[in-house]
Amino acid sequence: MSNRSGSPTQRTWDRTRQSREARLAAASAYARGKLVAADNVTKLLEAVVRPGDRVCLEGDNQKQADFLAASLAAVDPKIVNDLHIVQSGVVLAEHLDLFEAGVAKRLDFSYSGPQGGAIARALKAGKIELGAVHTYLELFSRYFVDLTPHVALTVARCADRDGNLYMGPNTEDSPVVVEATAFKQGIVIAQVNELVDRVPRVDVPGDRVDFVIVAPEPFYIEPLFTRDPAQITETQILGAMLAIKGIYAPYGVKRLNHGIGFNTAAIELILPTFAERLGLKGKIATHFALNPHPTLIPAIESGWVEQIHSFGSEVGMDDYMRARPDVFFTGRDGSMGSNRMYCQSAGLYATDLFIGSTLQIDLAGNSSTFTKDRVAGFGGAPNMGSDPHGRRHASDPWLQAGREAAGDTKALPRGRKLVVQIVETFGDKLSPTFVEELDSLALARSLDLPLPPVMIYGDDVSHIITEEGIANLLLCRTPLEREQAIRGIAGYTDVGRARDKRMVEELRARKVIQRPEDLGIDPLDANRSLLAARSIKELMHWSGNLYDPPAKFRNW
């Protein structure tokens, strides 16, 4: 930059560095080197956090910097206020306390899970100014563009005195959050379970960490991906049979991602039984981008699964993963390494199929987990559940789906990702899954949101599975065909009862709709005897007792 005479204008080029040095100087009274006593943490935060700062409080969808969350919620709002919270998971009550207390004002997030109802109430009450509900990859990317945190509050299993952090299996979001903050002169504070002389593995180098706190209690981890086989229903088993015989087998899907839920848990548990009888071993479901679901243990032990890369870990799976390095990505110390950004990228570009559930689907196939009273967030579903137009490597399932979508054999060859929604026609409390309009549209109108919160857009969805059958939306050539294909599997919902029966039968003749009987599946065969494990205890036995289930799942 120069003035008209050509000489450089005066400008300060290191304001962020000066800000960092001022914050560190203010914090020095509460630290010995990098170590801060637990009872000084709130004062530390009042020293380093400035009003209006962007703060990433880790908040993943599993591990939580819960002590730091409580400490931040306890700051004096006259000193720290109007914070812009940028974090992937808003799942603790303390995360909402920040807004109730006036400490925080604006929120950009990805997933809320158990706090979905509370966030909806806070939005309606004007307590939260919403930036956006992001996908994981979208939020992580914005950390490096326009949502760079000034302060990152992270969490690890242990640290040494130099600040090197060991996350173990639950590395999750930490590396990307820390890197975005540290390399833009931000402050990084880590909550750890213990201080050690030497960490087993360096997940975050100490030169990126400013302060370390040994918390009074180990950090909280949510067993988010554990599903008890005892709760899987025959309807869910039928859906799993349809998925395997109607989609996995004809497309030859080997590389895939399963969303969270009992529907996908049922698929995992009938791979060694139903799919084995179909002669599909080695032909489908060999490579996963997936958290270590306990319900995959029988498929792993019986030789179905060759490799799994994970977004995060799962409570109780540490010893099992350590003993199966051929399947999981494990470090030199033996523990699995996870990375949500890497695995989200793998799920977006390196898999051929995503299958997951949702709360509502409209006539165009748009889906959402938002309802009038629940702002649940999306997590990674919009990344995995989308057709990435930037993909350039071919695979048979991808090319086959592309040919079906094109319809015209003269068209330029292009592939297509398989994006499957597997649902029951009625959800909890007999709420219909299929609706004329998503609740999220009404929510957007009531909150004056510029973008309705749709989880997966209908034009990305390739198939929908219900207990009535499969709708192959790739084969639909008009919006009317698409609508009738969806109505044709919507059961006795209002949407399903309004189907054009003649048109639905025409679509069935073209295999746009396939009923169980069209695939040679007798719904009476969909019973719990197909499950390779029917309880958590049986999953333990399959693992050779390496799987150590959380206490809440132990009922024996």
UniProtKB/TrEMBL annotation:
GO terms of molecular function: transferase activity
Top-level taxon: Bacteria
SUPFAM superfamilies reported in the protein's UniProt record: NagB/RpiA/CoA transferase-like
Pfam annotation, one family: Mal_decarbox_Al
NCBIfam families named among the record's database cross-references: mdcA (TIGR01110)
Protein name (record): Malonate decarboxylase, alpha subunit
Lineage, uppermost ranks: Bacteria, Pseudomonadati, Pseudomonadota, Alphaproteobacteria, Hyphomicrobiales
